Amino acid sequence: MAETDRPTTNQFMSVEQYLETAESLKWLLTVAWLLPLLGFAVEIFGGYWGDRHNKVASYLAVGCIGTGFVCSLIALFTWGGATHWGHPEEAVAAAEHDHAHDEGHAHDDAHAHNDGHEHDEEHAHAEEHGPEHDDEHAHHVNDPYSAAFSGSYYMLGQFGDLTVSLDYYIDGLTIVMFCMVTLIATCIHVFAIGYMSDELTDDYEDHFVHLPGGKHFHRPGRFYRFFAYLSLFSFSMLGLVIAGNIFMVFVFWELVGVCSYLLIGFYVERKSASTAANKAFIMNRVGDFGFLIGLMILFTSFGTFRFANPHPTERAVEPGLFQMLRGEHGDLHIHGEGREAEVFLTTATGDHDKSIPYWLLVTAGLGIFAGCIGKSAQFPLQTWLPDAMEGPTPVSALVHSATMVAAGVYLAGRFYPMFTPEVLLVIAYVGCITLFIGATIAIVATDIKRVLAYSTISQLGYMMLALGVGGWVAGLFHLITHAFFKSLMFLCSGSVIHGCHHEQEMTRMGGLRKKMPITAYTMLVGVIAISGLAIPYLTFPFIGNIAFSGFYSKDEIVATALTHMSLNPVHFLLFLVPLVTAGITAFYMFRLWFMTFAGEPKDEHVYDHAHESPWVMTAPLLVLSFFAITVTWGMQIDEEGHLKPGYLVNALLTAEPAHVGEGLTEAGILGLSLPGHHAVHEYHATAGTAALIAAFAGLLISYLIYVNRAIDPAGIARQLSGTYNFLVEKWQFDNLYDAMFVRPVHIVARWPQAFDRNYLDGFLHALCRCAVWVSKWDRAFDERVVDRLVNLVGDVTFAVGRSLTVIQTGRLRQYVMFIAVGVVALFALMFVFMPTL
Amino acid sequence: MNEIALEGYLGIGALLFVCGVLCMATKRNGIGVLMGVELVLNGANVNFVAFSKFGTLGLDGQIASMFVIVLAAAEAAVALAIALNFYNNHLTIDVDRANELKG
Amino acid sequence: METLLFVLFGGTAAVGALAVVLSQNVVRMAFYLVISLGSTAGLFFMLGADFVGATQLLIYVGGTVVLLIFGVMLTASGPFITIKTAPSQVIIASVVGLAFFGVLFLTVLQVDWNANSARLESEYSASSLERIGYNEANVGNTARSLGAAFLGARFDEDLGRDRKELSSGYLLPFEIISVHLLVVLVGAAYLARAKRRVTRIEEE
Fold first, then answer.
1. Among A285, A338, A580, A645, which residue has the fewest nearby CB atoms (within 10 Å)?
2. Chains touching B, CB cut-off 8 Å, 3+ pairs
3. pTM of the predicted model, to two decimals?
């Protein structure tokens, strides 16, 4: 079945079934995508004209995104049913069963999934095949297009060769992202109902805006606007995920940017907020510049923006970007050496009549990745993210988990086939640097939200690193799991901030566990998840390992990195840094938790006024913590350290680009080797153990410092004051950029300014003076000549009329006399002057 | 008869016309003014009919005179009504008292 | 005979008109007017316009003058029977009137009417000599032709001629006149209606 001709049938389903699935998925996801837009439209107008006290806008927004989540969920199950959750072997079996007896199918399928015993057996089966994996891979090259559904909604326009259209591209990654985004967004929306409730007023006092005279700024509440922006944000992100061509991605990419701008600058009257919004927007523009360059290169060389052939059931009519670049087995067709190296493209005719220089492909990949750097706050554009904390906390949660920063990683994952090994190396190193920077700054940050922000940067670095070292699944897997626990933690911090009356400094908290237990323990779940703590090698029949989702995803990343190091010993940093950072992560996350929730209250005032948040805020926390634990359901590590993928990973695996699974050997100009799946399997146990040890070490240090107080943190800070200040100053990045860009720009700007002042202004002033002078003359002329003339005419008319009133006696008889005299006079004149006939 | 030519009738018409004009110009009585108008119209009428006989006007002259007579009757009716109204308002018929149109 | 009649009628009309001008008494003026208008009707008969003459008698002498006399009766209470005109005005008026009459009479005498009408005929009508419909034989019998002309048919112009297009009649002016008369009737009635308030005030 897997060997059959791909475009007509594929390894999962028949053509009819495929088309049917494609149609239902398309509509489900389209509804899920467009509902928030509808919500936005209604909220922004309805809210403007409506009452500022009611919560209708929020209910509408929650309804829209919630319905979107339901649709996505249905889509997920539709897709799962059609593709057998990414198990083609089962599909074959099921198909055979179908032929034999239809009624047994459902039972069999369910059985295969739910029965632990069956799982074990199956695993053993896989293990059997382990040694001769080469054969296995030859037969089971992952074909991402067989489970992908692509097509076009609407052709926007055609400009020569350029076709701009609204396309969709739906595969396992898309659907998983949809479910993740809608679920998290729903939770955040619900949370925001509680968090933003003080905006439900006609007169909101902003305590952070000080007006001259010691007063605070007052303005009408903007509850509805917040939810309208949230809806738009969700819409943009979903559009980005479902987009079927890179142009559409760019459009929604920018929309996401705009929404983040609006939301980060939600408290627009606060100087810091508007500055942060500007910063986020401008830094993103830097990356988007690269994105645009990549876009142009791709279009010039490929002639299309589409990801995949929009008619998958027919023989490639219009191959998309990925199909053109990668052959059947995901190989690049490189010809030539060195600078002359060219990559041949597969076009509709099947010939290699198009090609792209290899260096240009690398440039395009780097360009696209530049966009991802901006969006996902990677080094060197990471500085906007902490500043984005100026927005309301639900926004931070959304930006940091499901939407904004996820967009960058998502795009890097989506564009993976276009990246050459050189680009991947750059990605890996960028991720590596980012994760280390983020983690180290997080150690010294004291603002609860900023700690989380730096942790986000660090985790995004992990994702990028995973993608860079060839762990496609690992990176996106971490994206999903991280989204859950990071949004959870942000909402928890939001709950804390709300409960402590907008106190964000952790140094003034402490002991809040007793005051807000739900928040504290859901936060603990998130902390454990992000730290990757687990009790491995302890397998229960039904539950599996005692481990949260973060453990598995981080494990995958570290394992891939380790394998990568084993293949390319030169790049050993790519393993060591994430390993060490895993420990740092555990350290600063537990530091956060200990400082906030454990120990003694440091500020009595804050502690006394702290209170648990209402249910509308705690319920999302519970939901998210549940998912933070169980999103990796089905994953297991058995006694020998072999990892058994769960549903989530299987779903992602179906979308994995073809060339990833096997790995690469000595590829590209740098001769880089990328690990395949099997190679990673072999290092899993080692890497997992190392990461776990690091995490526990971090936890232990954190405990010693902040609970046991065996070590005095202030003392360390004093001893290492140089490093400490360096970290507090965020690696001097802001200062560096200030010195590198801002000040030079200021200096350069001074010259044009001087030119403006001295020359342009002078010229303009002279012009103005001329104009004024001319107008003065004109005015004088007007007043003295034109006006007088006009007045003269009027005066004469008036005088004549006045004098003629003498004749108008009103006497009838006189008039008759006038007529008679007139006639006589007229005739007399005629007789005198007219020539006789 | 040739000796009574067009000129005779035209002369009568002219006399009537001038009498009418003088009547209008001199009479202070509103009714007198109206009578002057009648005379003027009659003078014109004489001319019309005379031209209809001696000139090329033919029947058209008589038709014009018919219209003039009818219009004169109408004018007389309206003017008389105005005169009565004026009398009712001013309790006099002296047209010199009607000088509201004085500028 | 004709000269006699012309002198009689013309003289009466002229004297009557002068009498109207010269008389200061309204009632007498009305009487002289009747004489003048009646004589004019005689002139019309002499000119062969029997219907116009009859109409003149009926409408003017019988209708309009009676109307005027009614007016006199309604307004001429005591002091208004005679309203003297200032002598200076009379002098000015007579001078102007004489000049006016001079102008008119001079015009009448100076113009060569026969040559003028011949010229007009040569300009407007090719067959100037042939005048059907109004000639000596039909003198004194214009009523039918006039009536037909008012209804739009021109027997006098079109009978016995070989012409494609017909001459224009006076149906439309006739209708307009009739409507005009109606309007005048209504208007006069409205203007002359008794104003109750005024009378009541006077009674009180």
1. A338
2. A, C
3. 0.63
